[in-house]
Protein backbone atom coordinates (compact mmCIF):
# COMPACT_ATOMS: atom_id res chain seq x y z
CA UNK A 1 0.00 0.00 0.00
CA UNK A 2 1.33 3.43 -0.91
CA UNK A 3 2.09 6.05 1.73
CA UNK A 4 -0.35 8.88 2.40
CA UNK A 5 1.56 12.06 1.51
CA UNK A 6 -1.19 14.61 2.18
CA UNK A 7 -3.94 14.03 4.74
CA UNK A 8 -6.14 17.08 5.32
CA UNK A 9 -9.01 16.92 7.80
CA UNK A 10 -11.89 19.41 7.97
CA UNK A 11 -9.78 22.37 6.87
CA UNK A 12 -11.36 25.78 6.50
CA UNK A 13 -10.07 29.27 5.78
CA UNK A 14 -12.45 32.08 6.68
CA UNK A 15 -12.23 35.78 5.92
CA UNK A 16 -14.27 38.44 7.77
CA UNK A 17 -15.33 35.97 10.51
CA UNK A 18 -16.64 38.77 12.73
CA UNK A 19 -18.89 40.37 10.10
CA UNK A 20 -19.96 38.51 6.97
CA UNK A 21 -17.83 35.35 6.88
CA UNK A 22 -16.45 34.27 3.51
CA UNK A 23 -15.19 30.71 3.30
CA UNK A 24 -12.28 30.57 0.85
CA UNK A 25 -11.94 26.89 1.84
CA UNK A 26 -14.87 25.21 3.56
CA UNK A 27 -14.50 22.00 5.57
CA UNK A 28 -12.35 20.14 3.05
CA UNK A 29 -11.17 16.55 3.49
CA UNK A 30 -8.38 15.54 1.12
CA UNK A 31 -6.03 12.56 0.98
CA UNK A 32 -3.26 12.08 -1.59
CA UNK A 33 -1.15 8.96 -1.88
CA UNK A 34 2.46 8.82 -2.99
CA UNK A 35 2.81 9.03 -6.76
CA UNK A 36 -0.51 10.72 -7.53
CA UNK A 37 -0.75 13.23 -10.40
CA UNK A 38 -3.74 15.34 -9.40
CA UNK A 39 -5.37 18.48 -10.80
CA UNK A 40 -7.42 20.93 -8.72
CA UNK A 41 -9.93 22.61 -11.02
CA UNK A 42 -12.80 25.05 -10.67
CA UNK A 43 -13.77 28.62 -11.50
CA UNK A 44 -11.72 31.62 -10.35
CA UNK A 45 -12.39 32.24 -6.68
CA UNK A 46 -13.26 28.60 -5.98
CA UNK A 47 -10.41 28.21 -3.49
CA UNK A 48 -7.74 26.39 -5.52
CA UNK A 49 -4.80 28.66 -4.70
CA UNK A 50 -5.92 29.05 -1.08
CA UNK A 51 -6.02 25.28 -0.69
CA UNK A 52 -2.53 24.90 -2.18
CA UNK A 53 -1.21 27.60 0.14
CA UNK A 54 -2.72 25.82 3.15
CA UNK A 55 -1.32 22.42 2.16
CA UNK A 56 2.07 23.98 1.46
CA UNK A 57 2.18 25.74 4.83
CA UNK A 58 2.24 29.20 3.24
CA UNK A 59 -0.96 29.99 5.14
CA UNK A 60 -2.68 28.48 8.18
CA UNK A 61 -6.23 27.13 8.27
CA UNK A 62 -8.71 28.57 10.74
CA UNK A 63 -10.02 25.07 11.39
CA UNK A 64 -8.75 21.55 10.81
CA UNK A 65 -5.44 19.73 10.54
CA UNK A 66 -3.06 19.05 7.66
CA UNK A 67 -0.67 16.11 7.86
CA UNK A 68 2.25 16.00 5.43
CA UNK A 69 4.08 12.68 5.52
CA UNK A 70 2.60 12.15 8.98
CA UNK A 71 3.54 15.58 10.42
CA UNK A 72 0.72 17.91 11.44
CA UNK A 73 1.99 21.16 9.94
CA UNK A 74 -0.79 23.17 11.59
CA UNK A 75 0.91 22.51 14.95
CA UNK A 76 4.39 23.67 13.91
CA UNK A 77 5.89 26.98 15.01
CA UNK A 78 6.75 29.48 12.29
CA UNK A 79 10.43 28.50 12.39
CA UNK A 80 9.71 24.76 12.36
CA UNK A 81 7.27 25.23 9.50
CA UNK A 82 9.90 27.01 7.38
CA UNK A 83 12.35 24.19 8.07
CA UNK A 84 9.73 21.57 7.26
CA UNK A 85 8.83 23.18 3.93
CA UNK A 86 12.51 23.45 3.06
CA UNK A 87 13.01 19.71 3.31
CA UNK A 88 9.66 18.28 2.27
CA UNK A 89 7.74 20.42 -0.23
CA UNK A 90 8.56 21.70 -3.69
CA UNK A 91 6.73 24.74 -5.09
CA UNK A 92 6.20 25.78 -8.71
CA UNK A 93 4.53 29.17 -9.09
CA UNK A 94 2.67 30.67 -12.03
CA UNK A 95 5.02 33.69 -12.09
CA UNK A 96 8.20 31.53 -11.84
CA UNK A 97 9.50 33.54 -8.80
CA UNK A 98 13.12 33.29 -9.93
CA UNK A 99 15.65 35.69 -8.36
CA UNK A 100 16.66 38.05 -11.20
CA UNK A 101 20.24 38.73 -10.03
CA UNK A 102 21.11 35.03 -9.84
CA UNK A 103 21.96 32.73 -12.73
CA UNK A 104 19.71 29.82 -13.64
CA UNK A 105 22.08 27.46 -11.80
CA UNK A 106 22.15 29.69 -8.71
CA UNK A 107 18.36 29.85 -8.68
CA UNK A 108 18.07 26.09 -8.92
CA UNK A 109 20.57 25.44 -6.14
CA UNK A 110 19.19 28.12 -3.80
CA UNK A 111 17.20 25.63 -1.69
CA UNK A 112 20.29 23.41 -1.40
CA UNK A 113 22.28 26.41 -0.14
CA UNK A 114 19.66 27.02 2.53
CA UNK A 115 19.88 23.36 3.49
CA UNK A 116 23.66 23.60 3.91
CA UNK A 117 24.43 21.08 1.16
CA UNK A 118 28.12 21.09 0.21
CA UNK A 119 29.20 22.58 -3.10
CA UNK A 120 30.28 19.32 -4.76
CA UNK A 121 26.89 17.73 -4.06
CA UNK A 122 25.06 20.89 -5.16
CA UNK A 123 26.96 20.95 -8.45
CA UNK A 124 26.25 17.27 -9.08
CA UNK A 125 22.53 17.54 -8.33
CA UNK A 126 21.99 20.74 -10.32
CA UNK A 127 23.87 19.41 -13.36
CA UNK A 128 21.68 16.30 -13.27
CA UNK A 129 18.54 18.44 -13.09
CA UNK A 130 19.58 20.75 -15.92
CA UNK A 131 20.35 17.70 -18.03
CA UNK A 132 16.82 16.42 -17.33
CA UNK A 133 15.20 19.76 -18.24
CA UNK A 134 17.42 20.22 -21.30
CA UNK A 135 19.03 23.51 -20.25
CA UNK A 136 22.67 22.67 -19.47
CA UNK A 137 23.83 25.37 -21.89
CA UNK A 138 21.74 27.98 -20.01
CA UNK A 139 23.04 27.32 -16.49
CA UNK A 140 25.08 30.55 -16.34
CA UNK A 141 22.33 32.73 -17.84
CA UNK A 142 20.13 35.04 -15.77
CA UNK A 143 16.31 34.75 -15.88
CA UNK A 144 15.80 37.86 -18.04
CA UNK A 145 17.73 36.12 -20.84
CA UNK A 146 15.48 33.04 -20.75
CA UNK A 147 12.12 32.47 -22.41
CA UNK A 148 9.03 31.89 -20.28
CA UNK A 149 9.20 28.16 -20.88
CA UNK A 150 12.87 28.05 -19.94
CA UNK A 151 12.24 30.05 -16.76
CA UNK A 152 9.47 27.66 -15.75
CA UNK A 153 11.77 24.67 -16.33
CA UNK A 154 14.36 26.31 -14.06
CA UNK A 155 11.59 26.81 -11.48
CA UNK A 156 10.81 23.09 -11.71
CA UNK A 157 14.51 22.27 -11.27
CA UNK A 158 14.57 24.47 -8.15
CA UNK A 159 11.49 22.69 -6.80
CA UNK A 160 13.13 19.29 -7.39
CA UNK A 161 16.62 20.17 -6.15
CA UNK A 162 15.98 19.10 -2.56
CA UNK A 163 14.31 15.86 -3.73
CA UNK A 164 10.91 16.57 -2.14
CA UNK A 165 8.37 13.77 -2.15
CA UNK A 166 5.67 16.06 -3.46
CA UNK A 167 5.32 19.24 -5.48
CA UNK A 168 2.59 21.88 -5.41
CA UNK A 169 2.17 23.72 -8.70
CA UNK A 170 -0.08 26.78 -8.98
CA UNK A 171 -1.13 27.31 -12.62
CA UNK A 172 2.32 26.18 -13.85
CA UNK A 173 1.46 26.47 -17.56
CA UNK A 174 -0.54 29.71 -17.45
CA UNK A 175 2.26 31.90 -18.88
CA UNK A 176 3.60 29.38 -21.39
CA UNK A 177 2.94 28.83 -25.07
CA UNK A 178 1.64 25.47 -26.22
CA UNK A 179 5.00 23.90 -27.05
CA UNK A 180 6.64 25.02 -23.79
CA UNK A 181 3.62 23.89 -21.76
CA UNK A 182 3.61 20.43 -23.31
CA UNK A 183 7.34 19.96 -22.76
CA UNK A 184 6.97 21.05 -19.14
CA UNK A 185 4.12 18.58 -18.64
CA UNK A 186 6.24 15.84 -20.21
CA UNK A 187 9.00 16.58 -17.71
CA UNK A 188 6.69 16.54 -14.68
CA UNK A 189 4.88 13.43 -15.88
CA UNK A 190 8.20 11.61 -16.32
CA UNK A 191 9.32 12.58 -12.82
CA UNK A 192 6.00 11.39 -11.46
CA UNK A 193 6.12 8.03 -13.23
CA UNK A 194 9.84 7.30 -12.91
CA UNK A 195 10.56 8.69 -9.44
CA UNK A 196 7.07 8.58 -7.89
CA UNK A 197 7.11 12.32 -7.13
CA UNK A 198 3.59 13.33 -6.11
CA UNK A 199 2.12 16.35 -7.92
CA UNK A 200 -0.87 18.52 -7.00
CA UNK A 201 -1.73 21.20 -9.57
CA UNK A 202 -4.12 24.11 -9.44
CA UNK A 203 -5.13 24.77 -13.03
CA UNK A 204 -7.61 26.00 -15.62
CA UNK A 205 -5.52 24.51 -18.42
CA UNK A 206 -7.13 21.60 -20.30
CA UNK A 207 -3.62 20.43 -21.27
CA UNK A 208 -2.86 19.82 -17.57
CA UNK A 209 -6.30 18.38 -16.82
CA UNK A 210 -5.96 15.93 -19.71
CA UNK A 211 -2.72 14.59 -18.20
CA UNK A 212 -4.05 14.28 -14.64
CA UNK A 213 -4.97 10.87 -13.29
CA UNK A 214 -7.24 12.40 -10.66
CA UNK A 215 -9.32 15.56 -10.97
CA UNK A 216 -10.75 17.38 -7.95
CA UNK A 217 -13.29 20.12 -8.66
CA UNK A 218 -13.72 22.98 -6.18
CA UNK A 219 -16.80 25.19 -6.07
CA UNK A 220 -17.18 27.97 -3.48
CA UNK A 221 -14.39 26.54 -1.33
CA UNK A 222 -15.77 23.00 -1.19
CA UNK A 223 -15.03 19.80 -3.10
CA UNK A 224 -17.83 19.34 -5.64
CA UNK A 225 -16.36 16.20 -7.23
CA UNK A 226 -13.29 13.97 -6.91
CA UNK A 227 -12.70 11.39 -9.59
CA UNK A 228 -9.97 9.17 -10.95
CA UNK A 229 -9.29 9.49 -14.67
CA UNK A 230 -8.69 6.55 -16.97
CA UNK A 231 -6.49 7.66 -19.85
CA UNK A 232 -7.18 6.18 -23.27
CA UNK A 233 -5.11 8.67 -25.20
CA UNK A 234 -2.26 7.79 -27.52
CA UNK A 235 1.33 8.80 -26.65
CA UNK A 236 1.79 12.56 -26.57
CA UNK A 237 3.11 14.15 -29.73
CA UNK A 238 4.30 17.72 -30.05
CA UNK A 239 4.38 20.07 -32.97
From TrEMBL:
It holds the Pfam family ABC_tran. One of its GO terms (molecular function) is ATP hydrolysis activity. It comes from Chitinophaga jiangningensis. Belongs to the ABC transporter superfamily. Macrolide exporter (TC 3.A.1.122) family. Residues 6-232 form the ABC transporter domain. SMART domains: AAA. Keywords: ATP-binding, Nucleotide-binding, Transport. It comes from the Bacteria. GO terms for cellular component: membrane protein complex; plasma membrane. This is Putative ABC transport system ATP-binding protein.
Amino acid sequence: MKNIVIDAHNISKVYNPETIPVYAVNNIHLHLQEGEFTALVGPSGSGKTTLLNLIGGLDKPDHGNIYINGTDITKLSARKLIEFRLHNIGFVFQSFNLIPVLTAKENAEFILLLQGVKRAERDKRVLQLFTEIGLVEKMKVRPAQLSGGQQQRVAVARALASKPRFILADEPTANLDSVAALHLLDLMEALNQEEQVTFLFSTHDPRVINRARRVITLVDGSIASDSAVVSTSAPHEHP
